[in-house]
Design goal:
The chain contains 6 helices and 2 strands; from the N terminus they run ααββαααα. By secondary structure, the protein is mainly alpha-helical.
Length: about 140
């Protein structure tokens, strides 16, 4: 028989706070296996594994909606791994786009920083002027 865990222990073992467990429950990502007569939610070790899965997927940039789909694929015994790969490839394209956008921001900031003389007053600061005008120097 699997051990029944209260929400506090699930949170501790998964490395999250109780509010996170409740939030994931509201989102339908985890659910208690039952309730005590006192109303306490009772979970199994599977809830801990799911929450760790969710946190690891979030660290890779997956959204909760994407994670919900991955969790469904995780329990599908007949599901092909290729479906998971497709989702990971989709997430990778988004991450690559963000990296490119960040590199562009880095280039602009570097140019702005190099145009700043440091000795002038802020009324002639090229960085502030650029921000006011909304110009993006590439």
């Amino acid at each position: 028989m699997t051990e029944e865990l209260k929400i506090g222990r699930v949170a501790r073992e998964a490395g999250v706070n109780i509010q996170t467990v409740r939030y994931y429950e509201r989102r339908g990502l985890v659910s208690p296996e039952g309730y005590r007569d006192s109303g306490y939610r009772l979970y199994t070790d599977e809830a801990v594994r799911k929450i760790r899965f969710i946190k690891n997927a979030q660290e890779l940039g997956f959204t909760l909606d994407e994670i919900a789909r991955l969790l469904k694929l995780r329990i599908g015994r007949r599901t092909q791994c290729g479906k998971v790969r497709t989702q990971a490839q989709s997430r990778l394209k988004i991450v690559q786009g963000k990296i490119e956008a960040l590199r562009g921001m880095e280039r602009v900031l570097n140019r702005l920083i190099h145009t700043c003389a440091r000795r002038g007053t802020t009324d002639a600061c090229p960085i502030l002027e650029s921000l006011e005008e909304g110009r993006r120097r590439k």
